[in-house]
Design brief:
Strand order of the largest sheet: 6-7-8-3-9-10
Helix content: 25-40%
CATH topology: Rossmann fold
Number of domains: 1
Distance between the termini: 40 Å
Shape: globular
CATH architecture: 3-Layer(aba) Sandwich
Structural class: alpha/beta
CATH superfamily: P-loop containing nucleotide triphosphate hydrolases
Number of strands: 10
Strand content: 25-35%
Number of helices: 8
Largest sheet: 6 strands, mixed
Order of helices and strands: EEEHEEHEHHHEHEHEEH
Mean pLDDT: 91
CATH class: Alpha Beta
Low-confidence stretches: 231-237
Oligomer: single chain
Length: 237
């Protein structure tokens, strides 16, 4: 039974990997509801299952059992073509290593999802996305000519290009210095204020505390799920 208040609804999801002859239970009966407009941080030690959970949310992996419902649709039953379409249309992905083409310009990197989807006005839309992240003047620079923070902003521009309802960010500040990390998370909060749902995996508690809700995983299970009170904002209100 679906919950209309959930953008993402995960019901009793399990995921097991075979490592040689050993079974690894990455997720053990996870239940989770993510409402539209939330900004959530998923934390946990290495091997806790947080990246596996994010990969299932992003249709990059499938659970062994349980249901994944997105916008009321049971994604668990989708074929590969339907999953690819959903990844293209509904999700924006941001990764720790940026995943940019090193020999292509920022503009060309941002245009990539539009090329795959056959969209029109690719150049115009890519420039608008770069302007949105403050990098319009760097559009023709290659990733090798940019700082880590700039590269991640290019990756965010690419994630935004198809106007996704959900951004999934896996350790988005993992390769950045503290200032760049704070800038990236501040930008995520701006996007969230505009109505985009944000789910990010992080091992950094100071980054997680800037979300609205923190979910902690341990041994493939959710052990805590807490709302974050942004005391600094309240103090200045």
């Amino acid at each position: 039974m679906t919950n209309d208040s959930c953008l993402i609804q995960i019901e009793n999801v399990t995921k097991t990997y075979l490592m040689g002859k050993v079974e690894v239970n990455a997720l053990r009966g996870v239940n989770l509801c993510v409402a539209p407009g939330e900004m959530i941080a998923i934390i946990g030690a290495s091997g806790s299952g947080k990246s596996t959970l994010m990969n299932i949310m992003g249709c990059l992996d499938k659970p062994n059992s349980g249901k994944y419902i997105f916008k009321g649709q049971d994604v668990s039953k989708f074929n590969e073509n339907k999953l690819a379409e959903m990844r293209s249309r509904s999700f924006g992905f941001v990764f720790q290593d940026f995943n940019l083409l090193r020999r292509s310009s920022a503009l060309a990197n941002v245009e990539l999802p539009l090329i795959y989807s056959g969209a029109k006005q690719r150049h115009k839309r890519a420039m608008e996305a770069l302007e949105r992240v403050g990098l319009a003047k760097r559009a023709h620079h290659k990733p090798t000519e940019m700082s880590g923070g700039e590269q991640q902003r290019v990756a965010i521009a690419r994630a935004l290009i198809n106007n996704p309802s959900l951004i999934l960010a896996d350790e988005p500040t993992g390769n950045l210095d503290s200032k760049s990390s704070n800038d990236i998370v501040a930008f995520f909060r701006t996007l969230n204020a505009e109505g985009i749902t944000i789910v990010m995996v992080t091992h950094e508690m100071d980054i997680a505390m800037q979300a609205k809700r923190i979910i902690r995983l341990m041994d493939g299970q959710i052990v805590t799920d807490e709302l974050v009170g942004h005391k600094q904002e309240e103090a200045h209100a």
